[in-house]
Amino acid sequence: MPSRPTRRAVLLGAAGLGALGTAGISTAGTGTAHAGPPRTARPLASRPLYLGTYGQGILACTYDTETGALAAADGGFGDVTNPDFLALSPAGGVLYSTVGGGAEGGVRAYAIGADGVLSALGGVQSTGGAGVTHLSVHPGGGYLLSANYSSGSVAAHAIEADGSVGERTGFVQHSGSGPDPDRQEGPHAHQIVTDPAGGFVYAVDLGTDSVYTYALDTGSGALSAVSEVKSVPGAGPRHMVFHPRGTHAYVANELDSTVTAYAHDAATGALTRLASVPTLPDGVDPEGNYPAEITISADGRFVYLSNRGHDSVARLAVEDGGAALRLVDTVPCGGNWPRHITLSPDGALLYSANERGRTIGVFTVDADTGALTASGEPFATASTGCVLPT
Questions:
Q1: Residue 282 backbone phi and psi in degrees, to 5
Q2: Which residues pair with 228 in a beta bridge?
Q3: Is 45 helix (H, G, I), strand (E, B) or coil?
Q4: 21 contacts 298 by C-beta, under 8 angstroms
Q5: Contact between residue 95 and residue 76 where contact means Cβ atoms under 8 Å apart
Q6: Does residue 279 register a pLDDT over 50?
Q7: DSSP letter string over 248-295?
Q8: How would you classify residue 102: left for phi > 0, otherwise alpha for psi between -120 and 50, otherwise beta?
Q9: How far apart are CA 163 and CA 9, in angstroms?
């Protein structure tokens, strides 16, 4: 069926927290300098940044585009319950958030005005399931995708021409369980994303040890099952990220402190599980550690992952044409319990949202080696689930 031109015209572009690059893969070790793609020009000394918090709504900040330093700003939106994940529209003019606290989760849109000030854009729309924990914008710009952790389901909502969230157009309930009786007694959908080409939608389910592939009908907004790939039993897959080329994907496993590489067939949407590597250095006991967020550099050479418990950010080198990962090092996250990490749009900065420590760790990223260096003191704030630089 044909797509909706009004929605696509308003919100055309890349999904979620910013588009990944399209540069090639390097199989060289991290000790060799490698010139990545040119940095995107930074026209402003500071830009808006938003924090999705537990208990204080969406907080607005600015960040220094050179040092990463954060400063509190006016313009947040306090009247929203536990917006623990945020995403931008492709054009950057609309912010989307999860809405917790009810029997069913919700999603909502906010217009970004002058100086980053947020204003509600339409009402809250139900995701049809409990414990909404993640959302992303489909690359076509016409649909908002969400994952319900507690009930183990995923949903799609139409995005209206003004950027507001419309009716729910797609819904899938997962089923099954895993070997961990405490964490995998049933399905727990933790993330929903789209591949770089926009061909298929992927839902990562911690409870069933699965990554599900769906097709999204861009005319009707319906989700239909395509395939499923299993993780190592008991691994508890939580979040995934695609290589910019779309040839591979990498999944952070929350329950066994590993990250797994998958081969990706862009034509069929199928994922094939490859090798897993630890997210912690040799000799470190993984007991009490729970990997959370995963992201990748725009040139596809480095993957970054947050370790809750070890309270670190891991740097992994992408090798073997994208088919393998190698843990290079870890650095302290600048707080406690790093739930979310993200790179700035130009890739020069990395932020760590430290949920229990109530801080945001700020790092500069070496353009050649991918190494992280703490930049100033961590920024003290509310308990935060998501940090989103624009």
A1: -55, 135
A2: 212
A3: coil
A4: yes
A5: no
A6: yes
A7: EEEEEETTTTEEEEEEE-TTT--EEEEEEEESS-TT---TT-EEEEEE
A8: beta
A9: 11
**Tokens at 74, concatenated:** 């006016």
Kindly give, in sequence order, each residue whose CB lies less than 8 Å from that of residue 177, ignoring residues fewer than 6 positions away.
184, 185, 186, 187, 207, 208
Residue 188, SS3 per DSSP: coil
CA distance 6 to 15: 17
What's the residue count for the chain? 390
Beta strands 94-99 and 86-88, pairing class: antiparallel
338-374 residue pLDDT tens: 999 999 999 999 999 999 999 999 999 999 999 999 9
- Neighbour count for residue 10 (Cβ, 10 Å): 20
For residues 231 and 239, is the Cβ–Cβ distance under 8 A? Answer: no
Burial, 366: exposed, middle or buried (Cβ in 10 Å; 0-12, 13-18, 19+)?
middle
- Whether the Cβ atoms of residue 352 and residue 371 lie closer than 8 Å to each other: no
Q: CA 40, CA 349: separation in Å to the nearest integer?
A: 13
- Count Cβ atoms within 10 A of the Cβ of residue 113 and give its class: 0-12 exposed, 13-18 middle, 19 or more buried: exposed
Q: What is the rounded CA–CA span in Å between residue 250 and residue 262?
A: 6
Q: Is the pLDDT of residue 298 over 80?
A: yes
Tell me which residue of 106, 111, 65, 119 sits closest to 92, measured CA to CA: 111
